[in-house]
Write a structure and sequence with these properties.
The complex is a heterodimer of chains A (about 110) and B (about 110).
Chain A lengths: L2 E3 L4 E5 L4 E3 L2 E3 L5 E7 L5 E7 L5 E3 L5 E5 L4 E6 L8 E8 L7 E3 L3 E6 L1
Parallel strand pairs in A: 2-12
Antiparallel strand pairs in A: 1-4, 3-9, 5-6, 5-10, 7-8, 8-9, 10-11, 10-12
Chain B lengths: L4 E3 L2 E4 L5 E6 L6 E8 L3 E9 L2 E4 L8 E7 L2 E6 L8 E8 L4 E3 L3 E5 L1
The chains are: A mainly beta (about 110), B mainly beta (about 110).
């Protein structure tokens, strides 16, 4: 069965600093990988996704993520964090066998200090 | 497109009452998902549909939960009877190409 681990429950960074959120997945083949962001009281918004091809994917709001098969990782990065990036971030994995069924990690709460 | 629309946004009910949550997916999407989010268990997939047909309901916690999708533009999640432990945020999401698009959720409180 597929699974996702987000080892950091909370992360605090200063505005303008760089950010990296960790995500490790478990799946028997090449998975589909996603990052979502959730602001308080809102649904989840898709930041970016990896299906195949270039292992460095660009998303919205200046985020990017890199798929590393050897490390089973899909870490999310942003070179300079803005106060509005404070939210909860979820990594998710789907099997390529079809069905679009996503399994989510437990999330990382990002706090941005001004 | 207006995105995935869920109603109501908030529902407060008493234990034992029937609760119905509603979802309108994005037009043209052929997958629909119901997720539940709690602090303790995170995001859990309850059930999903493909072309209005239930594909996997293994996440539905008990027989008290049921979901239907009578047509491509409407789905319901029903809890009968409701219990306090059902209190959570329930999300509906739809998909066409593998990326899920979520509604704003229904905050359910069972007293």
């Amino acid at each position: 069965a597929q699974s996702v681990t987000q080892p950091d429950i909370h992360i605090t960074v200063s505005e303008g600093a760089s950010l990296e959120l960790r995500c490790n997945y478990s799946y028997g083949a090449t998975p589909y990988l996603f990052w979502y962001v959730q602001s308080p009281g809102q649904g989840l918004q898709l930041l970016l996704k990896y299906f195949s091809g270039d292992t460095l994917v660009q998303g919205i709001k200046g985020f990017e993520a890199e798929f590393k098969r050897s490390q089973s990782s899909f870490n999310l990065r942003k070179p300079s964090v803005h106060w509005s990036d404070a939210a909860e971030y979820f990594c998710a994995v789907a099997g390529t066998g079809g069905g679009n069924k996503l399994t989510f990690g437990t999330g990382t709460q990002l706090k941005v200090e001004l | 497109d207006a995105g995935v629309i869920q109603s109501p946004r908030h529902e407060v009910t008493e234990m034992g009452q029937e609760v119905t949550l509603r979802c309108k997916p994005i037009s043209g999407h052929d997958y629909l998902f119901w997720y539940r989010q709690t602090m303790m268990r995170g995001l859990e997939l309850l059930i999903y549909f493909n072309n209005n047909v239930p594909i996997d309901d293994s996440g539905m916690p008990e027989d008290r939960f049921s979901a239907k999708m009578p047509n491509a533009s409407f789905s319901t999640l029903k809890i009968q009877p409701s219990e306090p432990r059902d209190s959570a945020v329930y999300f509906c999401a739809s998909s066409l190409t593998g990326s899920l698009f979520f509604g704003s959720g229904t905050q359910l409180s069972v007293l």
